[in-house]
Amino acid sequence: MVKQKPVVLSLLAWAVLWELAARYAANDMFPALSAVVQTAFELVGLQSFKNALFITARAFAIGMLLSVLVGIPVGALMGRFKPVDRILNVWVNIFISAPLTAVVPALMPILGIGEATVVATVFLFAVWVIIIDTREGMVGINRSLLEMARSLGASRWQMFTRIMLPSAMPEVMTGIRLSVVRGIKGVIIGQIVVAVVGFGALFESYLHSFEMARFWALVMIVFLLGMVMMGLIGLAERRLTRHARVR
Amino acid sequence: MNTNSSIAAVPAVNDTTSDAIIKARGITMRYPNGVTALEEVSLDIPRGELVTLLGPSGCGKTTLLKIIAGLIEPTAGEIRVNDKTVHGPGPDRAFVFQDFALMPWATVLRNVAFGLELRGVPREKREAVARHYINEVGLSGFEDKYPNELSGGMRQRAGLARALSVDADVLLMDEPFSAIDEQMRRKLQEDLLSLLRVEKKTVIFVTHSIEEAVYLSDEVVLLTRHPGKVVKTVRPGMDRNASPDEIRRDRRYLDAVDDIWSQLKQYLR
Asked: Backbone phi, then psi, for A121, in 5-degree steps?
């Protein structure tokens, strides 16, 4: 807890600065922090917010689930089979560094203006880092653990589920944690590009009607949700990899 | 090189080959890069004995052990266990690893029971077996600890318990005590001998320590390198039931150590 002090202080200083600057500027486009916070509390009570939250959470969850379900097997195959690695590595490295935001508008004609595009955006943003980290984990498996399991007569499936996956778990969890950040970006960017669903629609409408307090309140809520997600994932990561970290 | 090839090819000393539990015939291991790790190695391992493979690093002793384990396929030659040809790992052999090979995410109990877990033995049954061997190797009270909470010596005790719990006829031990400090290593050597008086096992033990080999073995097989070949077999012949101190002061112990050293040093340069 002591370590958190500088963080709290820094946030506090930033909040005070915002408040003072906004009051001094007295501009409708730049609401004070106190007004934004107050609006945030109103916002979460609105039916339109609840609908948007539900739609966003669903698209995010589906996209992340797909990313994990595709990312772990693909990463595992790349880590354990050289030919697969040679074929896929270049693509994974292209996509992980590519500015995917530019591709999202191109998804719309294919997947339609709706949830499918948003889910696809989440997937496109999130899956690569899971693949890369899972691959890393699979490459780094202790050889003698594999020999141990083989000498005890493990089947291929047992080898994968009881040695490889647990061995690679620290890297897999790191990949998932990093992909959550990207997935949150993906869901918001997807919705803003599509512009008629979820938080994207809300952002759009607040911006067009100059409801800046609501706009910033929503930004703040999205930031907060992201941080809560990270905290939860971090917790799960620590639980799952408590002992696997030691090699 | 003055390798005595007439000794190399013949499974010397032991005439009672009919009671050999493991027979290695003409084992050759050549890697794709042209390096020959083993050449025409033939060996008989008598049932119920502890045989050590001893030699300088690079002599292929670990490779030979892994071939016997079925973990490596030799370029040529055949391994027979109980008169059945080996095509891979089998329940008749259990391996003890130099680096222990314990799963860091599993408790001692689960690690020791892992062989039975893979065979689908119900939890209660396999844990009862595991507890028995954990007790036998002197690890009682550590069942719920994780490997990183144990010392090197204790980790290898767990590795040994895992190998014992699958009830194999043969234990294949790959430099099991080399990662453990000297005093603890002596203790483990003594404990291994007393354990083997209870558990009737055939053991093939790989080491590069002459003293360890002579102290533990009924028979020491000397290997040389480039390529790995058997040059000599020595049977120290001490009384296995004597106390550890008596064994280490036994004339035959000292003679065997000297004999092996004079053999090996001509290959070291």
From this structure: -65, -45
Q: Which residue of A has its CA nearest to B102?
A: A145
B160, B243: one domain:
no
Q: What is the mean pLDDT of residues B147-159?
A: 91
One domain for residues B179 and B233? yes
Which residues in chain B have their CB less than 8 angstroms from residue A147's CB? 66, 71, 95, 97, 101
Total-model pTM: 0.80
With an 8 Å Cβ cutoff, are A147 and B91 in contact? no
Residues B185 and B84 in one domain: yes
Asked if A169's CB is within 8 angstroms of B98's CB, the reply is: no
Predicted local confidence at residue B1, as pLDDT: 38
C-alpha distances in angstroms, A174 versus A97, A149, A158, A228, A240?
A: 18, 25, 23, 16, 11
Residue closest to A89 by CA, chosen among A73, A100, A78, A76: A78
Task: Please give, rounded to a whole number of angstroms, the shortest distance from the CA of B81 to a CA of chain A.
Answer: 15
Do B76 and B100 belong to one domain? no
Q: Of B167, B197, B223, which marks where a domain is finished?
A: B167
Nearest alpha carbon to residue A135 among A91, A97, A101, A103 = A91
CA-to-CA dists, residue A27 to A21, A173, A202, B103, angstroms: 10, 45, 22, 62
HSE-CB for B17 with a 13 A CA cutoff: 13
* Same domain as B197, residue B263: yes
Instruction: State which residue of chain A sits closest to B104, comparing Cα positions.
Output: A244
Q: Which of B167, B196, B230 is the last residue of a domain?
A: B167
Structural domain including B126 reads: 96-167
B161 confidence band (pLDDT: 50, 70, 90): very high
Q: Which of A94-103, A215-224, B67-76, B165-174 has the lowest mean pLDDT?
A: A94-103
Is pLDDT above 50 for B13?
no
Q: How many domains are there within chain B?
A: 2
CA distance B229 to B238: 26
Q: Is A160 on the interface with B (CB under 8 A)?
A: no
CA distance linking residue B24 with residue B8, whole number of Å: 13
Beta bridge partners of B84: B81
Identify all chain A residues contacting B119, using CB atoms and an 8 Å cutoff: 153
Record: contact B94-A163, CB cut-off 8 A:
no
Q: What distance in Å separates the CA atoms of residue B151 and residue B195, rounded to the nearest whole number? A: 20
